[in-house]
Design goal:
alpha/beta; binds NADPH dihydro-nicotinamide-adenine-dinucleotide phosphate; Sc_DH/Rdtase_CS; oxidoreductase activity, acting on the CH-OH group of donors, NAD or NADP as acceptor
């Protein structure tokens, strides 16, 4: 098959957690543009529905599902809803995440648990629910959003729980990849550097420093992650599993 055709997702079924805005929304656009039916999974149903509506321009089927990825019952219900609507699931962009900036010695246990619950436990619950369906199908690609913070310690902002959660996502990814490779289910992770979204753009005091410390001298845009995720979602990456892909404008070089 022509290499460019292998990037197409025509007829594939995808869902994206934290898909209503930010990086998740940009990836949703890429999947829909490539021909996949896309379900937007998020906490806020109104915003998820709005994003799903925007995807309709690509003439694919879309769906919005309200889900808290930290709640097993929500995640299982989401999976049932998506399977009922789409019939199968080929691609998951497992992306919902938050960051709380607090000095380690002052962080409450509640704050620690909230970050780990969404960024790590949520990623596991979603991967497990999708993995079960994919094992039955004997095919699928899961892309977990980690971060360059799983590789380095950011500064000046204190975010030990976030960094720990993202490092864990990278190892969880490798573990799932090894377990599920015999079932033709691939699992990889994406480690972005600083990307301009609601998560980062509100931290106006830190942006000049982040830019200075990035060899490319700027933050990335969500759309600059589309290519690598499309690669991982599509059949072009058929021999790629258990890998982490850093896209950070060179930040981790220094
Ligand atoms: P945003 O804050 O813009 O978007 C995150 C989305 O996740 C929101 O729609 C949010 O919903 C949703 N979400 C949060 N908690 C839950 C939950 N419990 N269940 C379901 N959905 C939830 O963040 P980004 O787009 O910037 O980040 C996306 C991912 O990329 C995260 O995992 C983040 O850690 C990672 N990342 C981001 C980087 C960056 O520089 N922006 C760099 C490296 C990694 P709501 O709005 O309703 O809260």
């Amino acid at each position: 098959m022509n290499i460019l055709d292998q990037f197409k997702l025509t007829g594939k079924k995808a869902f994206i957690t934290g898909g209503a805005r930010g990086i998740g929304k940009s990836i949703a656009m890429a999947f829909a543009q490539a021909g996949a039916d896309v379900a937007i999974v998020d906490l806020d149903l109104d915003v998820a529905q709005q994003t799903a509506k925007e995807l309709a321009q690509f003439s694919v089927n879309t769906l919005a599902v309200k889900t808290d990825v930290t709640k097993p019952d929500d995640v299982n219900a989401m999976m049932t809803t998506i399977l009922n609507a789409f019939g199968s699931v080929d691609i998951v962009f497992n992306n919902a995440g938050i960051c709380i900036n607090v000095n380690a010695e002052e962080m409450t246990y509640e704050q620690w648990r909230k970050v780990i619950d969404i960024n790590l436990n949520g990623v596991f619950l979603v991967a497990q629910a999708a993995g079960k369906a994919m094992i039955k199908q004997q095919r699928g690609s899961i892309i977990n959003t980690a971060s360059m913070s799983g590789h380095i310690v950011n500064e000046p902002q204190p975010q030990c729980a976030y960094n720990a959660s993202k490092a864990a996502v990278i190892m969880l990814t490798k573990s799932l990849a090894a377990e599920w490779a015999p079932h033709h289910v691939r699992v990889n992770s994406l480690s972005p550097g600083y990307i301009g979204t609601e998560m980062t753009l509100k931290a106006t005091q830190w942006i000049p420093l982040w830019e200075k410390r990035t060899p490319m001298g700027r933050m990335g845009k969500p759309d600059e992650l589309q290519g690598i995720v499309l690669y991982l979602a599509s059949d072009v990456s058929s021999y790629t599993t258990g890998s982490d892909f850093v896209v950070d404008g060179g930040f981790t070089c220094w």
